Batch of 4 targets.
Target 1
Amino acid sequence: MIKLKNVVISGKEVLPIIEGGKGINGTDGRSSGHFAKEGCVGTISLVSADFYDENGKPVMERSVRIKRQERHEDLIAGAIKGGIAQAQIAHEIAGNNGRIHVNELWELADSEKVISGVLEGAKGLIHGVTCGAGLPYKLGEIASSHGVYYYPIVSSARAFQILWKRSYANYSEFLGGVVYEDPWLAGGHNGLSNAENPEEPQNPYNRIKELRATLNKLGLQEKPIIIAGGVWCLSEWEDYLDNPEIGAVAFQFGTRPMITKESPISQAWQNVMRHTKPGDVILQRFSPTGFYSSAIKNKFLSRLMERKDGEIAYSLEANEEFDTPLALSNVKTVYIKAADFAKADNQMKAGYTVIQETPDSTVVFLTPAEWAEMKDDRAKCLGCLSQCQFSAWSGAKGTTGKMCDPRTYCIHKTLFDIGHNGNTDANLLFAGHQVYRFAQDPMYANGHIPTTHELIEAIKEGR
C-alpha cells in the first residue's frame, strides 16, 4: 500500500489521484463522476462534449449551415451545451464526493467562450478548470470571475513563469495548482518547445524540481504540482512523495482509465490499446495545431508518415539546382532537383497522381480519393481551432492567409469519429507512451475490464 496523503484540490481534501481530460468523448460526465465518487478528481473534456436529443442519444450532427463562421458558432454553442450536460451527469453520480473539473484546450477557437459558458450554465457543479495546449493566460481571469479554481498545464518552469508574469499574479487566490505534463510521455498534444529534442527525453524529476523551486520563489509553496504523462502505478513514483524538493503533489492518470467499465472509449479502441506494444506510440508533428502529438501507429498515421517521406522541395523558377520540370496541373509547372525525379515518378506510378503544394515550398503526392476527401473536409470545416494549418481557418480573422497544408488532416473530424465508435484504422488514436502496459498489467488479463472503483483501489495499493 502506497502511503498517500490527501491533498487540497479546489478547496477540498481529496486523494491525490486525478482523471486526465482527454479530447472528444475521451472523458465524460459518467467517467469523471465515478472518479469523484471515489474521493478523487474527475475531469470532463469540454472538447465538443456530447449533448443529447429528446431520446437521450448523442447529437451527432453539429451543423449543416453553409458559411464556415455559422458552422463555427453552432460548434461553440454545442460545446457549451455538451459541457453543461456532462457536468450535470457527473454531479449526479459523484454526489458530494471528490471534485469535478473540466478540461479545455486553449488553442481551440473561442475556448474562453466555451469555458465561461459552461461555468455559467453549470454553476456550482464544477470545482476546477484545467487548461493547456498553448499558454492560457486568460484562464485565471475567467475562472476567478466564476469563483472556480484553475490549473494551467505546462511542460516547464519557464512556461509557468511567463503565465505568472503576464496574468496569474493578479489572480493567485484561485490558482489551485499547476499541472506538469511531461512532453515526451503524455498522449495527445505535447508541449515541446523548439529548443527541446523530441528524440531526447529529459528526466521529469529535474523538471518538476525546477517547477517547485519556481513556485516557492513566487510564494506558492502550498500549491500542488499535478504530475501528468507516463503515470501508470504510484509505486514507480514513490520518490516524489513526501519529498521537500517536490512539495505537495498529485498524479494525473490519462491512459489507464481509458479501459474501465465507465469509460466512454469504444470497445474497438480499447481492443487496439490492449494489443499495443512498446514503440507503437509515435511522437510526431502532423497535427493542424502545429504542436507535437503522440498517437498509436495505425493505417491513418502511417499514411501521414508516408506522405511526409514522399515530400519533395521545389522552385518556381528553373535554376542550376532545381532544373527538372514537374507539372502540378495544366497551368502550373514547378522545378525539382534531378535527384528527386525518380522519387516523384515512383509515387505517381503507384497511384499518387495528385500533386499538392505545401506552405514550405515543397510538394506531396496524394491519390485522387485522398484529394477528394481532403477537399470535402475543408469545405465542411467547423472552425474548431484558433488557427488551423489544414483548412487555413483563423478564429480571429476567418483565415490565416496561408496556404492550406496537405501534410495534415481535419482534427475535429477524426477525433469526433473515433470518439463515437469510428474505424480505428481510419482515424487518429491519441495515446500516452505507457499504453503498451495494458498488455502487461494483470488487472486487464483475459479481457477483464475493471470498474473505476477497482482501478482506484489498485492505484492506491501501488499496483
Note: The mean pLDDT is 93.
Target 2
Amino acid sequence: MQIRVQFWSYFRELTGCSQATEELVDEATIADLLQRLHARFPKLVSMHNSTLIAVGVEYQGRDYVLKPGDEVSLFPPVQGG
C-alpha cells in the first residue's frame, strides 16, 4: 500500500522535501513507516524520540496500523508562527 507522508516545520529541512510516498506491506504500523523513513532520510533519526505523528487529523502512536490511503504528518513538538 502507498502511504503519503507530509513533513512540517524544520522536518522539511531535514528531509529536503515537504512530502514523500512510501510503499508498505499491508498491516504495516507507524513504527514500520518510521523505520523506512529513517533509512531514506537519515537526518530524521535524531528526532526519533520527539517526533509527533498524526494520521489525518488525529495523533497516533507508533503501534497504529496504517490503512491504504492514510496520510501521515510528521512534525516537531514546537513550531514557530
Note: The helical segments are 11-15, 30-40.
Target 3
Amino acid sequence: MPSYLFQLELPPMTEEMLSVIPKHREHINSLFADGKLLSYSVSSNSNMIWCVVECDNERAAMDMILKLPLYQYFTDIACHPLLFHNTQAAALPGLSLN
C-alpha cells in the first residue's frame, strides 16, 4: 500500500489550540492502532508536524489529514508520495525463561 509523508505547519501555539491537543492525541493514537499512521513527529517549537500515513491513494491520505482535530489550525500542508518508508522496530525487552 502506498505511503505519504505529510509536512504540516502550525502557527504559534494558543490556548485554544492547546485545548484541542488531547482530542488530537487520541485521534493520532487511534490511527496508529489501526495501522494507518506509520510515524508522527513534532518539532521542538511545535510549529511543524511530520507524519507518514499509509492509504490506498493520495486523496484518501489527504482525507485522513483533513479529519485531524488540529486541521483547522494548519497554515500549510505538503504531501509527498513515498517510494518506500523504512523504520526500525521498537526495541522490546529481552525475554527471560527463568
Note: DSSP finds two helices and four strands in the chain.
Target 4
Amino acid sequence: MKTYLGEFEEVVLTMVGILGDQAYGNAIVKETMERLDRKVNLSAVHITLYRLEDKGYVKSEMGGATSSRGGRRKRYFKITNAGLSLLKEMQVQRKKLWELLPQLNFAAFQS
C-alpha cells in the first residue's frame, strides 16, 4: 500500500532533509519561515514530525540537556531511507505533471 503525504508533511520532511543533523522543531519553523516566507506553528510542526515518524519517514533521538534550555533536551529528527525515497518519487511525479502543463504565461495571471 502506497502512502501519500499532505503538502505540509512534504514541507516538513523536506526541511528535515535540508537541516540534516540540526533538524528539530524550532529550526524547522525558522527555516520554513525564511526559505518559504510562510508562517508555521511549532505545535503543527511537532505533530507532523511525530506523524512522519509513525509512518517511518523520519526517526528521532534526544540530544543532550543544556543550561540555555533550562536542562531540557532537544529532540532531533533525521530523514530515513524510506523518507528520502518518497521525496524523490514525489519530485519525479511533480516533474512529469509540470512537463504536461501547457506553456502558460504565468505573468498574465498575476493581478
Note: The longest strand covers residues 58-65.
